[in-house]
Specification:
Elements (H helix, E strand, L loop, with lengths): L11 E10 L3 E9 L5 E10 L2 E8 L3 E9 L4 E5 L2 E3 L6 H13 L1 E2 L2 E4 L3 E2 L8 E12 L12 E6 H10 L6 H17 L7 H4 L1
Length: 200
C-alpha cells in the first residue's frame, strides 16, 4: 500500500467497554484499528442524548434568550433556550417543551432547521435547531433543580453585533443555530414578513 492514497473510512472497533454510565451519559472506551492500520487504544466516546435549541423571535422582532450559570465554564452565559431530548421523544416535541419550561414562552410557528453533530469526534449525539416565530409569554418557568434562568429579550441587531464583537460568548453550537436561523430568514423573508428582523 506504500505510495497509494488512503481514503478516510470507518474504523474497525476491535473491543469496546463501558467505563461509566448514568442517566446523563455513557463513557465508552474503544480499541480501534484505523484505515491506515494504526491502533488507537483507548479511544474515548461519550454516548449522549440528543440536544435541541431554538432561535425564538417575538412578534416585536426580539430574540428570547436565557442567562444561566454554566459550571464547566465557571460563569453565567447567555444563550438560546435549549435542552436535552428525552429517550424516545421527538425533538420537535422536546424543543417547545423546553422553551416553555425555561422561559415561560410559547410560539405560534415552528420551523425545523438543519441538525448537526455535537462533536462527531467523541460524542454520539445530534443537535436539533429550530426557529420559532410569534414567541409570547404564557406562564411561569418550570425549572430543573440545577437551573436558575433569567429571560433576556434582545434585538437581532444588538445580539449580532455582540456576537461578532466577541462580547456575546455563547456556546458554539448556539452560535451555529443562530446563523442557520439568519440564513433561513434571508432565504424566506420575501414570503414571510415575520422573518424580516432576522434577515437584515
Amino acid at each position: 500500500m506504500t505510495g497509494e492514497a488512503v481514503k478516510p473510512a470507518p474504523w474497525t472497533v476491535e473491543t469496546s467497554r463501558v467505563e461509566y454510565t448514568d442517566r446523563f451519559l455513557t463513557h465508552r472506551m474503544d480499541r480501534c484499528l484505523t484505515e491506515r492500520g494504526n491502533v488507537l487504544d483507548p479511544y474515548h466516546v461519550l454516548e449522549l442524548r440528543d440536544w435541541c435549541h431554538v432561535v425564538a423571535l417575538t412578534e416585536a422582532g426580539e430574540l428570547v434568550l436565557v442567562e444561566e450559570y454554566r459550571h464547566a465554564a465557571g460563569r453565567v452565559v447567555r444563550g438560546l433556550p435549549a435542552g436535552t431530548v428525552e429517550v424516545g421523544e421527538d425533538p420537535a416535541v422536546a424543543m417547545p417543551r423546553e422553551l416553555t419550561e425555561e422561559t415561560g414562552y410559547a410560539a405560534d410557528t415552528w420551523i425545523t432547521l438543519p441538525s448537526t453533530w455535537g462533536n462527531p469526534a467523541t460524542q454520539t449525539n445530534r443537535v436539533h435547531s429550530y426557529l420559532a416565530l410569534g414567541a409570547r409569554p404564557v406562564g411561569g418557568q418550570s425549572l430543573d433543580p440545577g437551573e436558575t434562568i433569567d429571560v433576556v429579550l434582545k434585538s437581532v441587531g444588538e445580539a449580532t453585533a455582540e456576537l461578532m464583537a466577541g462580547t456575546w460568548t455563547l456556546s458554539g453550537l448556539h452560535a451555529a443555530g443562530f446563523m442557520l436561523a439568519r440564513e433561513y430568514a434571508r432565504l424566506h423573508a420575501a414570503t414571510d414578513p415575520r422573518l424580516a428582523p432576522l434577515a437584515r
